[in-house]
Design brief:
This protein is of the alpha/beta class and 319 residues long. The protein is built from 13 helices and 8 strands. It is 50% helix and 13% strand. An 8-stranded parallel β-barrel has the order 1-2-3-4-5-6-7-8, surrounded by 7 helices. The structure holds dihydroflavine-adenine dinucleotide.
Length: 319
């Protein structure tokens, strides 16, 4: 119920204007967001790197409403890629296709994606295409396929375990040796396309993890790069200890070395767990979002965990 309210709020523009104006909202959101500008985010990444953590930077934005907004986002990502390179950071970049103009014009968006991939290639870097709601899954996979046909291999995708279709998609991606980040899924989906029960989403998450870890055994699978930017084929992205333990156990059974998979978590969530995994010898990449368009991302983080609402209420009444 609360989850649905927050996900609905994430799409309502008057709510966005009202909520993101307030200093208080930013104070709360800043738990999950590295800063409103790039320099703060780069500082956060340098700090994470010094602690043995890798990063993926996300210039926040989605559903660009105008051609200029989409072009602006692309320019920010291009400069970001140069900055990562000149600072020598162990970070790649995550993008969303609607941020690049997918809703406005597909060809225009596709060309933006090619421009970003070319710049990333020039800077020895990797781009992860985040997965948005299920109305865009097919198109996102098609774009991935099309850029690969054009010779780009510095690209990966996200698969959501709440979708019924994900097992089939994961098997196909694993067979093509495409780096996949497996997540549970953060959008509101109908029972026609997604498992309504958490138990099924979790079971499917473990299944997808197994498929990816098994594929990572193959000789030609992508491995961790020395510059910390190219991920291996499986990225297990969750904060849930049970899912992480499952992946660790499976990797052990398969005798997989830690350079063949990585764990991923979001900035500001379960930092101790991130550090514990690094100490235990695993690769961990932190998703570091930044920018002024933080509202929908923040609402999805609230939706994920009802306890966050109590955190807000508690803060509201604190002097
Ligand atoms: P679950 O929600 O069961 O949480 C497990 C535990 O983690 C909770 O009990 C709590 O302790 C902690 N936790 C989780 N979320 C929290 C929060 N918001 N605040 C505080 N604690 C929290 N989704 C998507 O649809 N497309 C995408 O491209 C991505 N990309 C992505 C990248 C990375 C690196 C991560 C980690 C996640 C995503 N996601 C995503 C989000 C994902 O789909 C999912 O919504 C969240 O990861 C929460 O699910 P968990 O697997 O953590 O489990």
């Amino acid at each position: 119920m609360l989850r649905s309210i927050f996900i609905s709020l994430s799409k309502i523009s008057w709510a966005q204007r009202a909520i993101s104006k307030g200093k208080f909202a930013w104070k709360l959101a800043s738990r999950f967001i590295a800063g409103e500008n790039k320099d703060s985010a780069l500082r956060v990444v340098a700090e994470l790197n010094s602690q043995g953590l890798l990063a993926t930077l996300d210039y926040l934005g989605e559903h660009a409403q105008t051609i200029d907004a989409a072009k602006g986002a692309v320019n920010k990502v291009l400069v970001l890629l140069d900055d990562i390179q000149s600072a020598g950071l162990k970070a790649n970049v995550s993008i969303k296709l609607t941020q690049l103009g997918l809703i406005l014009d597909e060809e225009f968006c596709f060309n933006h994606l090619l421009t970003i991939l070319a710049k990333a290639q020039e800077n020895d870097n990797f781009i992860r295409i985040d997965m948005e709601d299920s109305s865009l899954t097919e198109k996102t996979l098609e774009f991935l396929h099309q850029v690969m046909v054009r010779g780009y291999s510095n690209v990966g995708i996200v698969i959501q375990s709440y979708l019924y279709r994900s097992e089939k998609d994961t098997r196909a991606l694993a067979a093509s040796r495409v780096p996949v980040r497996v997540v549970k899924g953060a959008y509101r989906e109908s029972e026609q396309v997604a498992y309504p029960d958490k138990g099924d989403v979790d079971r499917n998450f473990d299944l997808l993890t197994s498929i990816l870890l098994e594929a990572a055994l193959q000789e030609d699978t992508p491995l961790h790069s020395h510059n910390g930017r190219f991920p291996p084929l499986p990225a297990i992205a969750t904060h849930e200890v049970k899912r992480i333990l499952f992946a660790r156990e499976k990797a052990k059974q398969l005798n997989l070395t830690p350079d063949r998979y990585e764990f991923q978590m979001l900035f500001g969530i379960r930092r101790n767990l991130q550090h514990e995994l690094v100490k235990a010898g695993y690769f961990v990449r932190v998703y570091v979002p930044y920018g002024t368009h933080w509202y929908p991302y923040f609402m999805r983080r609230l939706a994920e965990r009802p306890a966050n609402v109590w955190f807000i209420i508690d803060n509201l009444f604190r002097p």
